Amino acid sequence: MATGIRAYFGKYLRGRRAMVMPPDPPTGARASRRQVPGLRRQELADAAGISVEYCTRLEQGRAPRPSREVLTALARALGLSTAERDHLFRLAGELPPAPLAPDSEVRPGLLRLLHGLDDTVAVTVHDGRLEVLARNAAAAELFGPVSSAGRYRHNIVHQGFTATARHILGNEGADRYTRWATAELRSAMGRYPEDENLLSLHAELSAASATFRSHWALGDVAAERSAVKHLRHPTRGWLSFQTELLHDAERDHWIVIYAPAG
């Protein structure tokens, strides 16, 4: 780490240590008087499995870049949240750890926002595994009921290769969507390479769809986050929408907004 970065890292580490409640003394032991709030350096060093001398050098900005193992141990010892842990990693010049899986729950505030737009704008939420987690009434009206059967009925990639998607998108729109969805699957498998559901979805589409095999051979990785789409509404006919994808990085959720394009 550069000198300035080491100083920021050390200051953050000291500040977080000062905010941690010290451990209770053993039963029957006399509690010693503390001159400063939070953990002592020795207590943090012991909890993180490092020497107190190394802990001191880190806090004073005199140590080289700590390893990812040390950063993980410090974050655990300090009880850091995911966002705080990621900040600690970035201050040390490291990429934060990749999530093992997307969060399974949509933020309550986001759900309230979705339902507040029920009568105006269609909104859906899917996770980093490409599974739809929520949609509001306007989206349900636009896309129709979700199939009640099938392992992948909530997966936006699998949905793109169905007759229903071709009806809603038209032939040209469905062709564009399947290429985009294939690229999304490649990206998701890069984030979660050992995910059984993604691997089995890839295997199923590879076996069943020549279109998927053709798109997969192109090697595309998803990048499009904004587009104009023409969709067939069940009662209002063809409509144009400006679609925008917004990412909640901490939960790995994607919010898709379908704003009328006029």
Automatic annotation (TrEMBL):
Transmembrane domains' residue ranges: none
InterPro entries cross-referenced by the UniProt entry: Cro/C1-type_HTH (IPR001387), Lambda_DNA-bd_dom_sf (IPR010982), MLTR_LBD (IPR041413)
PROSITE patterns membership: HTH_CROC1
Domain HTH cro/C1-type residues, every copy: 34-85
SMART domains reported in the protein's UniProt record: HTH_XRE
UniProt protein name: Helix-turn-helix domain-containing protein
